[in-house]
Sequence to fold (275 residues):
Amino acid sequence: MIFHFEGCDLYYTIKGDLESAKNTIIFLHGFTGSSIDWEPIEQYFSQDTALIFLDLPGHGNSGTPEKSNFFEEKNLRDLIFRFFTLLELKKPYLCGYSMGGRLALSFALSYPHLLKGLILISSSPGINSKAERNKRIKADNKIVEILINDGIASFTDNWLNLSLFSGLKNLKEPDFLAYRNRKLKNDTIGLIRCITGFGQGKTKNKWGRIKNIKIPLLVLTGSLDKKYCDISRQMKLRNKNIVTDVIEGASHSVHIEKPEITATSIINFLKTNNS
Fold:
């Protein structure tokens, strides 16, 4: 299905019945990903949970907006708000992975009354230090150079070879190749605008607001992803009500690498909040 926002066509799918479902979860993928990335965990949810998968701008089957400022944080947050309005969603959970998690957190901080709960997978509230943010912007600019000069295939291979994604090497070869090939279908201009407009260096630092989160929040990380495990612990220190879970033997992409365990963690979180 397609919905229109600010001149851009955005693709989404719905699995389940929104009217009868006990819970609804909206899933937001990461940078270079798509809604299909969530397929490995779909099968583990029962029929009383409706699942909604959205391709963010420049990714998957969604279009790339003409306006370069489309990817600024406020505009992406407005996109999610419009999506909620379109589907007339009543208190769903919002689940975001990596970049999608940054967007999910941004939305939750602005519209907590619209959510039943929040699930963040391998995601961060931002970068505290201005110097570190500038360093990250420079690193993201190098990614842009690779995309422009070497093309999306070379960029994708470099991206997947990052230590952050070491656990993906344990996938069966056909599964890994399918995952890689999906990334090649993304729009290069869309990826460039996304990382320059909503990269970690450009995203507002939200560490100081973690303590204010009142809705149920689950933070998932992979045990091999030491950086994000530490981020998860730091978030828990700022808000004792946050539920954290570490998926053993997984790196950054826990829902791809360990789908059943990831889905079980999310399902248990939902059960706790429904009891």
Q: What stands out?
A: The chain has one domain: 2-274. The beta strands are 2-5, 8-15, 23-28, 49-54, 93-97, 117-121, 217-222, 243-247. Residues 68 and 193 are 6 Å apart (CA to CA).
